[in-house]
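Chapter summary example.
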Amino acid sequence: MELNSIKPAEGAKRGRRRVGRGIGSGLGKTAGRGHKGQKSRAGGYHKVGFEGGQMPLQRRLPKRGFKSASLKYNAEVTLSDLERLGEAEVNLLALKKAGLVREIVKVVKVIKSGELTKAVKLTGVGATAGAKTAIEAVGGSLA
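The structure predicted for these 143 residues follows.
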């Protein structure tokens, strides 16, 4: 096999639809645009969401709430996750390596959910007030 002889499988590529090329093509005369109207004309269209002058749906519906774009960089880890991890020193890199947080994450916080029996030293990882007391109760620390 040579690079210049590679071809897609038979039937994998279909020819471009050639509109307005006679009645024999099946898309002659109006070229599939129908008769008259804005959408049949060259350059005749409207912006996305336009409803012919009627108040568009995105303006009719009430707006509420806000979702920060930076939330994708934040993650939570539970006490039970730390227990399963079984490491004495935990940092962001260790959590990423274990698959507990995604690679894109920059800020991690431990939340009080589940039980922790082993002492864990957290470096560069935040914790809620409840999680902090639970970690310190078993002899762990936060740095």
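To summarize the output: The longest helix spans residues 129-137.
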